[in-house]
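User: I'll paste a sequence; please echo it back and then give the predicted structure.

Assistant: Echoing your sequence first, then the prediction.
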Amino acid sequence: MKIWHSPLQIFKYTFDDVASAVWNRYPNDYSTHIISEDILESRIEGNKIFIKKLIIKKGSKYLKMIPFGMSSLRSLKIVPCIEESIYDRDSKTLKTYTRNVSYNDKFMMEERCVYSPSVDEYKTSTDLKRSILTHVNYGKFSNLIQKVLLMQYKKRLKGTDSGLIQVLTERTNVSSERVNFFKDSLSSKIENARKYINY
Protein backbone atom coordinates (compact mmCIF):
# COMPACT_ATOMS: atom_id res chain seq x y z
CA MET A 1 0.00 0.00 0.00
CA LYS A 2 1.29 3.45 -0.96
CA ILE A 3 0.09 6.93 0.00
CA TRP A 4 1.05 10.04 -1.93
CA HIS A 5 0.26 13.60 -0.87
CA SER A 6 -0.05 16.22 -3.59
CA PRO A 7 1.45 19.70 -3.11
CA LEU A 8 -1.08 22.26 -1.90
CA GLN A 9 -3.27 23.49 -4.75
CA ILE A 10 -4.77 27.00 -4.58
CA PHE A 11 -7.76 28.08 -6.66
CA LYS A 12 -8.31 31.81 -7.09
CA TYR A 13 -12.01 31.47 -6.37
CA THR A 14 -14.05 31.66 -3.19
CA PHE A 15 -14.73 28.49 -1.24
CA ASP A 16 -18.47 28.64 -2.00
CA ASP A 17 -17.77 28.89 -5.74
CA VAL A 18 -15.32 25.98 -5.63
CA ALA A 19 -17.60 23.76 -3.54
CA SER A 20 -20.46 24.32 -5.97
CA ALA A 21 -18.21 23.63 -8.97
CA VAL A 22 -16.86 20.39 -7.46
CA TRP A 23 -20.40 19.01 -7.29
CA ASN A 24 -21.08 20.08 -10.89
CA ARG A 25 -17.68 19.58 -12.54
CA TYR A 26 -18.84 17.00 -15.09
CA PRO A 27 -18.99 17.26 -18.01
CA ASN A 28 -16.06 19.46 -19.00
CA ASP A 29 -13.57 19.45 -21.86
CA TYR A 30 -10.97 17.62 -19.76
CA SER A 31 -13.21 14.80 -18.50
CA THR A 32 -13.55 12.70 -21.65
CA HIS A 33 -12.75 9.60 -19.56
CA ILE A 34 -15.99 10.06 -17.57
CA ILE A 35 -18.82 7.99 -19.04
CA SER A 36 -21.59 8.82 -16.58
CA GLU A 37 -22.33 10.30 -13.17
CA ASP A 38 -25.35 9.54 -10.99
CA ILE A 39 -26.35 10.63 -7.48
CA LEU A 40 -27.09 7.60 -5.32
CA GLU A 41 -27.82 9.38 -2.06
CA SER A 42 -28.02 12.89 -0.65
CA ARG A 43 -29.00 14.02 2.83
CA ILE A 44 -28.62 16.87 5.30
CA GLU A 45 -27.68 16.31 8.92
CA GLY A 46 -27.44 19.49 10.95
CA ASN A 47 -25.01 21.77 9.14
CA LYS A 48 -23.55 18.99 6.99
CA ILE A 49 -24.50 17.87 3.49
CA PHE A 50 -23.71 14.29 2.46
CA ILE A 51 -23.71 13.24 -1.21
CA LYS A 52 -22.83 9.86 -2.68
CA LYS A 53 -22.29 9.48 -6.44
CA LEU A 54 -21.61 6.62 -8.81
CA ILE A 55 -19.07 7.69 -11.43
CA ILE A 56 -18.30 5.39 -14.36
CA LYS A 57 -14.84 5.95 -15.85
CA LYS A 58 -13.10 4.49 -18.87
CA GLY A 59 -10.69 1.89 -17.59
CA SER A 60 -8.53 0.91 -20.52
CA LYS A 61 -7.06 4.39 -20.99
CA TYR A 62 -6.35 4.81 -17.30
CA LEU A 63 -4.52 1.48 -17.08
CA LYS A 64 -2.84 1.47 -20.49
CA MET A 65 0.67 1.87 -19.10
CA ILE A 66 0.56 -1.35 -17.09
CA PRO A 67 2.99 -3.92 -18.58
CA PHE A 68 1.45 -6.19 -21.21
CA GLY A 69 1.93 -9.26 -19.03
CA MET A 70 -0.89 -8.06 -16.76
CA SER A 71 -3.51 -8.38 -19.49
CA SER A 72 -6.41 -8.78 -17.05
CA LEU A 73 -5.85 -5.20 -15.84
CA ARG A 74 -5.02 -3.68 -19.23
CA SER A 75 -8.24 -5.06 -20.70
CA LEU A 76 -10.56 -3.30 -18.26
CA LYS A 77 -13.03 -1.21 -20.25
CA ILE A 78 -14.81 0.58 -17.42
CA VAL A 79 -14.06 1.27 -13.76
CA PRO A 80 -17.08 2.10 -11.57
CA CYS A 81 -16.19 4.47 -8.72
CA ILE A 82 -17.98 5.79 -5.68
CA GLU A 83 -17.50 9.42 -4.69
CA GLU A 84 -18.64 10.46 -1.23
CA SER A 85 -18.57 14.12 -0.26
CA ILE A 86 -19.20 15.91 3.02
CA TYR A 87 -19.82 19.65 3.10
CA ASP A 88 -19.43 21.07 6.61
CA ARG A 89 -20.91 24.53 6.98
CA ASP A 90 -19.41 25.05 10.44
CA SER A 91 -15.79 24.22 9.60
CA LYS A 92 -16.10 25.54 6.01
CA THR A 93 -14.70 22.38 4.45
CA LEU A 94 -15.67 20.09 1.61
CA LYS A 95 -14.20 16.60 1.79
CA THR A 96 -14.44 14.10 -1.06
CA TYR A 97 -13.49 10.42 -1.08
CA THR A 98 -13.38 8.63 -4.44
CA ARG A 99 -12.57 4.93 -4.82
CA ASN A 100 -13.06 2.11 -7.31
CA VAL A 101 -15.71 -0.40 -6.23
CA SER A 102 -14.93 -3.24 -8.63
CA TYR A 103 -11.81 -5.31 -9.33
CA ASN A 104 -10.85 -4.80 -5.69
CA ASP A 105 -9.26 -8.23 -5.69
CA LYS A 106 -6.68 -6.78 -8.13
CA PHE A 107 -6.24 -3.14 -7.19
CA MET A 108 -7.69 -0.31 -5.13
CA MET A 109 -7.26 3.44 -5.47
CA GLU A 110 -8.80 6.01 -3.14
CA GLU A 111 -8.45 9.74 -3.63
CA ARG A 112 -9.07 12.05 -0.69
CA CYS A 113 -9.56 15.79 -1.17
CA VAL A 114 -10.14 18.54 1.38
CA TYR A 115 -11.23 21.97 0.15
CA SER A 116 -11.17 24.93 2.54
CA PRO A 117 -10.88 28.74 2.40
CA SER A 118 -7.31 29.97 2.06
CA VAL A 119 -5.87 31.64 5.12
CA ASP A 120 -5.68 35.20 3.83
CA GLU A 121 -7.21 38.52 4.76
CA TYR A 122 -10.06 38.40 2.26
CA LYS A 123 -10.58 34.62 1.92
CA THR A 124 -11.02 34.95 -1.84
CA SER A 125 -9.07 31.77 -2.63
CA THR A 126 -9.54 28.09 -1.83
CA ASP A 127 -6.95 25.53 -0.74
CA LEU A 128 -7.04 21.92 -1.90
CA LYS A 129 -5.19 19.23 0.03
CA ARG A 130 -5.20 15.99 -1.95
CA SER A 131 -3.84 12.51 -1.38
CA ILE A 132 -4.09 9.15 -3.13
CA LEU A 133 -3.90 5.71 -1.58
CA THR A 134 -3.09 2.74 -3.82
CA HIS A 135 -3.03 -0.97 -3.11
CA VAL A 136 -2.34 -3.69 -5.69
CA ASN A 137 -2.63 -7.44 -5.25
CA TYR A 138 -0.63 -8.86 -8.15
CA GLY A 139 2.11 -10.87 -6.52
CA LYS A 140 5.68 -9.81 -7.20
CA PHE A 141 4.47 -7.20 -9.70
CA SER A 142 2.40 -5.29 -7.12
CA ASN A 143 4.98 -2.57 -6.43
CA LEU A 144 5.59 -2.01 -10.14
CA ILE A 145 1.88 -1.65 -10.88
CA GLN A 146 1.41 0.70 -7.93
CA LYS A 147 4.15 2.94 -9.32
CA VAL A 148 2.55 2.93 -12.77
CA LEU A 149 -0.90 3.77 -11.36
CA LEU A 150 0.52 6.59 -9.27
CA MET A 151 2.47 7.97 -12.23
CA GLN A 152 -0.67 7.99 -14.38
CA TYR A 153 -2.65 9.62 -11.60
CA LYS A 154 -0.09 12.43 -11.26
CA LYS A 155 -0.09 13.00 -15.03
CA ARG A 156 -3.86 13.49 -15.04
CA LEU A 157 -3.98 15.97 -12.18
CA LYS A 158 -3.36 18.92 -14.50
CA GLY A 159 -6.37 17.94 -16.60
CA THR A 160 -8.47 17.36 -13.49
CA ASP A 161 -7.69 20.83 -12.16
CA SER A 162 -8.12 22.41 -15.60
CA GLY A 163 -11.59 20.87 -15.86
CA LEU A 164 -12.61 22.30 -12.49
CA ILE A 165 -11.22 25.73 -13.42
CA GLN A 166 -13.17 25.61 -16.69
CA VAL A 167 -16.40 24.99 -14.80
CA LEU A 168 -15.53 27.71 -12.28
CA THR A 169 -14.83 30.19 -15.06
CA GLU A 170 -18.08 29.42 -16.86
CA ARG A 171 -20.17 29.60 -13.68
CA THR A 172 -18.60 32.81 -12.37
CA ASN A 173 -18.81 34.49 -15.79
CA VAL A 174 -22.52 33.71 -15.94
CA SER A 175 -22.95 35.12 -12.44
CA SER A 176 -21.03 38.27 -13.40
CA GLU A 177 -23.13 38.70 -16.53
CA ARG A 178 -26.31 38.41 -14.49
CA VAL A 179 -25.06 40.93 -11.93
CA ASN A 180 -24.09 43.35 -14.69
CA PHE A 181 -27.46 42.86 -16.37
CA PHE A 182 -29.34 43.70 -13.19
CA LYS A 183 -27.04 46.66 -12.51
CA ASP A 184 -27.67 48.03 -16.00
CA SER A 185 -31.39 47.40 -15.67
CA LEU A 186 -31.51 49.12 -12.29
CA SER A 187 -29.49 52.08 -13.55
CA SER A 188 -31.84 52.43 -16.50
CA LYS A 189 -34.89 52.41 -14.23
CA ILE A 190 -33.33 55.00 -11.91
CA GLU A 191 -32.48 57.23 -14.86
CA ASN A 192 -36.02 56.96 -16.22
CA ALA A 193 -37.42 57.76 -12.79
CA ARG A 194 -35.25 60.87 -12.57
CA LYS A 195 -36.45 62.03 -15.98
CA TYR A 196 -40.04 61.49 -14.90
CA ILE A 197 -39.53 63.43 -11.65
CA ASN A 198 -37.79 66.31 -13.43
CA TYR A 199 -40.42 66.47 -16.13
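The longest helix spans residues 142-198. Residues 2-198 form a domain with the Alpha-D-Glucose-1,6-Bisphosphate; Chain A, domain 4 fold (CATH 3.30.530.20).
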